[in-house]
């Protein structure tokens, strides 16, 4: 009998996928739980793609409202990016398009974090902003950045507020969500997670890559099939 259990970020991502598979196999599917697990899978997938080897870039961002960063990739010019609002979102944000900045002003990306020593993880919405930047994602020559449309950011903000936050800070009440919204947001979260894990070039999967990738694809297929039934019934 095992006396210890191994836990790391990748194992917790695979565990979330298992929970989704279990729920879809149930006689009474709890779509809220699926969406909650998909939100967490995306959060952990973003962390995995951003973390590097020293976890410097995934420490909580500076609490100041104005967030900016000046960086340089390889032999390219130095660029500056700053926090920017997204139309239609109240809390979700992204970094601006890169703008050339003087070489002398280069700062290291970890200066975005609070100056005091902390091991607090970046927020979900901060992680979404960071995976859309070359600054944080293109650590290797073959790395890729994930772009997310304004509409999809609005959906992910809804998912974070109405699913994750409602679950974590639930005040007992009568609560209703449309299954189609739960499925659409789950599909988006899983699609982004799949890219981050398997296509961003920033994640080395320790074990079971083919099996895990197949699980992602099967879940996306199941969600598409249910969504198609909703479309046909309307």
Task: Please explain how this structure is put together.
With 234 residues, this protein is an alpha+beta fold. It has one domain. 47% of the residues lie in helices and 8% in strands. It has helices spanning 9-24, 31-50, 124-130, 134-137, 150-168, 179-198, 209-233, and strands at 68-72, 78-85, 93-95, 99-100. Strands 1, 2, 3 and 4 form a 4-stranded antiparallel sheet that branches. β1 (68-72) and β2 (78-85) form a beta hairpin.
Secondary structure elements and their pairing?
Elements: H1 9-24, H2 31-50, E1 68-72, E2 78-85, E3 93-95, E4 99-100, H3 124-130, H4 134-137, H5 150-168, H6 179-198, H7 209-233
Antiparallel strand pairs: 1-2, 2-3, 2-4
Helix pairs in contact: 1-2, 1-7, 2-3, 2-5, 2-6, 5-6, 6-7
Overall pLDDT metric: 89
**Count of individual helical segments:** 7
Describe the global form: globular
Sheet having the most strands:
4 strands, antiparallel
State the distance separating the first and last CA atoms: 53 Å
Structural class: alpha+beta
DSSP strand count? 4
**Assembly category:** single chain
Low-confidence stretches: 105-111
Concise description?
The chain has 234 residues and is of the alpha+beta class. Helix content is 47%, strand content 8%.
Keywords summarizing the entry:
4-stranded antiparallel beta sheet; 4 strands; alpha+beta
């Amino acid at each position: 009998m095992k006396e210890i259990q191994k836990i790391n970020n990748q194992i917790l991502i695979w565990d979330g996928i298992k929970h989704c598979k279990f729920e879809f196999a149930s006689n009474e599917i709890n779509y809220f739980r699926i969406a909650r697990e998909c939100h967490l899978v995306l959060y952990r997938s973003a962390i995995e793609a951003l973390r590097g080897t020293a976890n410097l870039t995934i420490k909580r961002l500076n609490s100041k409202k104005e967030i900016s960063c000046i960086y340089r990739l390889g032999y390219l010019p130095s660029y500056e990016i700053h926090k920017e609002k997204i139309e239609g979102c109240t809390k979700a944000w992204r970094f601006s398009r890169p703008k050339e900045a003087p070489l002398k002003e280069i700062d290291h990306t970890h200066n975005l974090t609070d100056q005091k020593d902390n091991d607090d993880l970046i927020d979900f919405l901060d992680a979404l902003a960071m995976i859309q930047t070359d600054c944080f994602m293109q650590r290797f020559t073959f790395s890729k950045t994930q772009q997310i449309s304004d509409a999809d950011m609005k959906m992910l903000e809804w998912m974070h507020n109405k699913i994750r936050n409602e679950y974590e800070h639930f005040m007992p009440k009568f609560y209703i969500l449309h299954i189609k919204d739960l499925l659409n947001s789950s599909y988006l979260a899983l699609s982004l997670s799949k890219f981050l894990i398997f296509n961003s070039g920033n994640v080395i999967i320790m074990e079971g890559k083919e099996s895990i990738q197949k699980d992602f694809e099967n879940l996306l297929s199941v969600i598409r099939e249910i969504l198609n039934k909703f479309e046909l019934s309307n």
